Amino acid sequence: MFTKQALNMVLVLVMIMTLCTSSLFAANVGMGSYTEYLPAGEEHPPETIYKTTNLTGAVPTNSWESSILWEQYSQPIFSHPLTFKAVESGLEIGTPRLGGGGIAYFGSHIADITLENSSMATAVDARADKITDWTTDVLMADGSNNIKATLVKGSPYVYATFAGGNPVLEFRESPVIFYGGSNSQYLGITIGGVSYGLFAPAGSTWNGIGTTRLTCNLPTGRNYVSIATLPDNSVSTLNYFKDHAYAFVTDTKVSWHYDENSSQLITNFDLTTSVKEGSNSNTIMALYPHQWRNNSLISPLGYSYNTLRGTMKTVAGTSFQTRYTYNGVLPSFPDVADLSNPGSFDANTLSGYLNELANEEFTGSGNTYWLGKTLGKIASALPLAEQVNNGTVASTLENRLRSTLEDWFTASSGESQNLFYYDNNWGTLIGYPDSYYTADQLNDHHFHYAYFIHAAAQIALRDSYWASDSQWGGMVKKVIKDFANWDRNDNQFPFLRSFDPYEGHSWASGHAQFADGNNQESSSEGINAAQAIILWGEATNNTEIRDLGIYLYTTASEAIHNYWFDSYGDVFNPAYGHEIASMVWGAKYSHEIWWAGGDEEVHGINLLPMTVASIHLAKHPNAIKVNYDEMVAENGGDPDTWADIHYMAYALYDPSTALNKWSDAIIPEAGESKAHTYHWLHSLNTMGTPDFTVTADTPLYGVFDNNGIKTYIAYNASNLWKTVNFSDGTTLDVAPYAMGISGVTTPPPSTDNHLIPGKIEAEDYDNMSGIDTESCSEGGENVGWIEVGDWMDYTVDVETAGTYTVEYRVASPQDTGEIELQSNGDVLATTAIPNTGDWQAWTTVTVEVDLTAGEQTLRLYASGQQFNINWVKFTLQSVPEPTADHGVEYISEAEALFWVKDGGSSGQDNGWIIVYIGDDASTDLHSKPGYYMTYNSSLDRWEYTKNDMHHNGGEPWEYQFNLTGAIGDEYLYTH
């Protein structure tokens, strides 16, 4: 029995544990959080991971070798040109025989050789012992006896070491030995028409020559062999491969650099080797077509392999490099309604479609994929609502993105939906509700989370404060890192989980537990992930993340054109019989999808979602037409479903035909909207198709050509004006946070400047950085979420130069706020914000400043933080006494205010002025035009503003005044 005292102690402990559990439920990241406790009733990846203690940190998944980690042995593993499979007896090694046709063309695993240990009848399991960027060490053991094999993507070699026994090679049929014998260090063999080199240490011998089972007797102190698939069975080839067979690959590393000036992506592939014998540290690498094509930086050997990915050419060494042109992405297509070319959209029609979208039911809930697609649809439409000045829809769409992301980026105690869970065992972030096995199999994270990142990027382009790490940016980066971790020092997530740096594209399956290896269906959703990362990086001024996105986007584009669309015509075997691959596997490319969809979906799955990043498809425009034509032939006509997706893609080939095919009766694909399709088709019909011959020195850009008329576009995500230089010599000056378009003034000239004296609502800024707005207790909205460095710009017209009282209506529960008032970059005054007790407890603080007359930009700059502001008011207190009886207030080279203190005898009704601008004062003033002046009673002077002056080049400028029309009454003022 418990005593009363003991019972009380138990209750206290329970309360403490409850409080601790509640506080530990969420791991906070800025304003967001994720849970480290599995939500009730949800699936999660298996507890058992087949890895050794050497493999620490987050577990790499979604790769070509991933089945090693998920099951006792493995499924076939496709490294090209070799294949492998871990089985009870050892490691199967093969070279695929190509064949098939119709629904798929195959390069399946065939076990030519099974590598075993003479002292190990069966391995307990196969475990990943080490994983680098494109290698995997597989350990198969039974007690102290083991085989450890290094599998290398793109290598003709497999490297193996043995403990407790000798290498045994079991063949599926008796091999033909074309070189060597029992006492040879190395052998050349052929099995089923495929040749291999078997390379042992010096001093080794072989038992079983002429049978299906060879044992290599290793010399003392040497425990290794390497095996290579050979391009042919010549002895010279065997010897060349022998010379490189003892440089065992121990590490691989990819690195990239985006050269902004040349718009080039440079990728380095570096290998580390350990020389087992001899002095040659170089290995042989087989390069995929996307790596060797148009690559003057490599010198291919005379050896190549015919593989499922086309011809793989070889190079020798420990590194190679690729260079690709990055052709830019944009947050959206620009407003082309003002361009001179015909076919631009109708703003009222577009606004109507946007109203329909805003009226669609929206809850912010759903699984990560289908909610994600909705977020993507909204994110693509938001810029369009702003273009047509539909503020109501723009506000609705942006608020939906904000509220949904903030909900999902926050985990609360007891919550099991609309949150992210971190699985420490695997090192992965899982969103719930999950879908398509994103939780228990870790599938498709890059597909699903891309939509979240794109939505976040659109907010970040409008609100840098929201995107800061202290707010919601920290969670956005966590989500990116889950599938595309760029930081090798961050062990919370594996490096580039979903992306295969050697094969150049992503993999969708987390486990790759298929006889055909890993797979990826929607390569376009991989592109969507990359473009979202680019936008996020640029919007948050994080060049490391931006360049990660550029690397993923540019590299994947090259792979997609090679392996999904066969744009060069040298990858697909004619027996396949199709123009595109809807799905690419380690061991096949196929004309099918994961569900029983129609031909439109088979041909459309690698198109959606259509974002401006989709323009990369137009690098090979004929491939777009071929895809569409085959779809029409198979479907028996134009598409019945996903028609909007197909027409949007076709517009990259032929905009006018695509526009004519589309109608608003078409039901949009789930991730599309009529508004976006309408805008897309009309934009391309106006601008023309992408021109990839011209690059720019900024990451967010595009160039289009309509029958020789080029449109140059660039987006400036910074807070300073940017001059963008295009490679053909064109330049474009782009305003902060704005889209620049050739032929269109950017930003549009303001027709609604704020007048001073007067009151300006804080939320009526022209540009801003970092702030946000909210409902104000005094009515309307106020500006808030202000941190140091945030600012708002207001274009104003100061009617009269003088001293002004500036009133700020402010509120804050802190005493850390401070405002700098700046005019055209000059600090006029600094004002401290007091602690008012609450974010909506308002007070007015004042300061006096001197303002010059005329148009200027006033900036409210936060030199302190944590305050709200509702409005600012300017009241004229005094004007400076003129220091002369006449003068000129310079406004610009084309505009000046002329004034005279003494109006002379002319009176207020007939005062006039003659203005002469030049370098010669000896001019007959009667030949110059006269301008009537007006009387400014507050300054007690006569004034005239001339706004069309033209300086003829002389210095100084001279202004001559005549108030009565008599030459003798003139004044002369030199500027």
From TrEMBL:
CDD domains: CBM6_cellulase-like (cd04080)
GO terms of molecular function: carbohydrate binding; endo-1,3(4)-beta-glucanase activity; glucan endo-1,3-beta-D-glucosidase activity
InterPro entries: CBM6, Cellulose-bd_IV, Endo-beta-glucanase, Galactose-bd-like_sf, GH81_C, GH81_N
Gene Ontology BP terms: cell wall organization; polysaccharide catabolic process
Pfam entry (one): Glyco_hydro_81
Leader peptide range in chain numbering: 1-26
SMART domains noted in UniProt: CBD_IV
EC number, as in UniProt: 3.2.1.39
Catalytic activity: Hydrolysis of (1->3)-beta-D-glucosidic linkages in (1->3)-beta-D-glucans
Keyword field: Carbohydrate metabolism, Cell wall biogenesis/degradation, Glycosidase, Hydrolase, Polysaccharide degradation, Signal
CBM6 domain span: 758-875
Family (UniProt): Belongs to the glycosyl hydrolase 81 family.
Protein name per the record: glucan endo-1,3-beta-D-glucosidase
Organism per entry: Orenia metallireducens
